[in-house]
Design brief:
single chain, about 375 residues, mainly alpha, Herpes Virus-1, 30s Ribosomal Protein S18, 3-stranded antiparallel β-sheet, 10 helices, 11 strands, about 45% helix, about 5% strand, elongated, disordered N terminus, ubiquitin protein ligase activity
């Protein structure tokens, strides 16, 4: 059965007590429906699944909470609007608590010096500022002196050398990696090297900046590859979820079950199959949310990497590289792992739960 959510999840929203999915004011299938015989509320999908197991004519729907029955079809159950009002109020309260998002500069890696709503494309080596191409031409064509300025692409912007931690008026020339050093993770000038870092395996600051810059681009490339794989999985899983909502495939399987048992139709086999369909679909939807979350985390991290790499400031720091490597260590399977309902290995007698093709292949190869 679907995994029951924790206490906090159930208190943040009303859930169907059969599939443990949150009721929704926008999704018609997840709007709470009131059982007329008792007043309990469930989602339409679960109620229809219960009704299909009925052996009576006309079919009856038995409440899973109190076992009372009704011959009214689930699609005709009244929607619990009182519960929807509470859900809408809770959603509105959550929206009010969220910090307001500003559109100014949103999604921009490096802002244009003249207009913060523009993405910087060029860096003026004389002005020491970043511009979009339009603003650069507009601001530099007015002055004959500024017309002599030289602009380079943002990717070719010179790295900014950090200043010494102890002597802010001097440029740093080295970085100390020794964990036990009292000036650990600090950069310093020549004088600091003699005073605090004697015999330490310090690296030249320019070499460290170059190494970190190259590593950032390598992490960016690997993060993009991981995102592409996850996006492919996301497309597969969406197709799989849709297949579990196709009545033709489900009806065909149920017909095969009925034909297999003949006059002595086994109701438990049909019940097993319907539970399997509901459970598998809910599991796929949970995995879809997890993949979407992973993709979003990669996008946020990759944006931080690119922004720092383009700004060329504090490239001697390695925190983002460490964070990217940590994300990349979480490997994902690159082969197909999500299948449509019709691709499952299905037995009409339901003596075994329908299995994915990879599960059968794995069990066969292990013999």
């Amino acid at each position: 059965m679907p995994r029951r959510p924790n206490w906090q999840t159930t208190c943040e929203g009303f859930v169907c007590s059969i599939c443990w999915t949150n009721f929704s004011a926008t999704d018609s299938a997840m709007k709470p429906r009131v059982a007329p015989q008792c007043g309990h509320s469930f989602c339409l999908g679960c109620l229809e699944a219960i009704a299909r197991t009925s052996r009576t004519q006309p079919p009856t729907t038995r409440c899973p909470s109190c076992r009372r029955e009704t011959n009214i079809l689930p699609k005709n159950f009244v929607i619990n609007y009182a519960m929807l009002d509470v859900i809408n109020s809770m959603n509105e309260a959550k929206e009010r608590q969220r910090p307001a998002k500003t559109k100014k500069g949103e999604g921009i890696l490096v802002q244009c010096f003249e207009n913060q709503n523009h993405e910087a494309e060029l860096y003026c080596t004389s002005c020491k500022e970043a511009y979009c191409e339009k603003c650069y031409m507009k601001s530099h064509e007015k002055s004959r002196l500024m017309q002599q300025h030289r602009a380079v692409k943002m990717a070719d912007k010179p790295e900014v050398i950090p200043m010494c931690s102890e002597h802010p008026h001097r440029e740093a020339i080295f970085h100390c990696p020794v964990a036990s050093c009292s000036h650990y993770e600090k950069v310093g000038c020549g004088e600091c090297g003699k005073l605090y870092h004697r015999d330490h395996p310090c690296s030249k600051i320019l070499n460290r900046i170059k190494a970190n810059s190259d590593m950032m681009m390598e992490c960016h490339k690997l993060l993009q590859e991981k995102k592409e794989t996850l996006t492919s999985h996301q497309e597969d899983i969406i197709g799989s979820i849709k297949s579990f909502g196709l009545s033709d495939t489900i009806s065909h399987h149920e017909q095969l079950i009925t034909e297999h048992f003949g006059p002595n139709e086994d109701e438990s086999a049909l019940r097993k199959y319907r539970i399997f369909v509901l459970y598998e679909k809910k599991q796929l939807e949970c995995q879809k949310k997890d993949i979407a979350f992973q993709i979003r985390q990669i996008e946020i991290l990759d944006k931080k990497l690119l922004k720092k790499w383009l700004q060329k400031v504090n490239l001697h720091e390695a925190e983002l590289i460490i964070e990217a490597r940590k994300n990349l260590r979480k490997r994902i399977i690159k082969t197909k792992v999500y299948f449509k309902l019709e691709e499952y290995n299905f037995r009409p007698d339901m003596s075994a739960r329908p299995s994915r093709p990879v599960e059968v292949a794995a069990s066969t190869s292990g013999r």
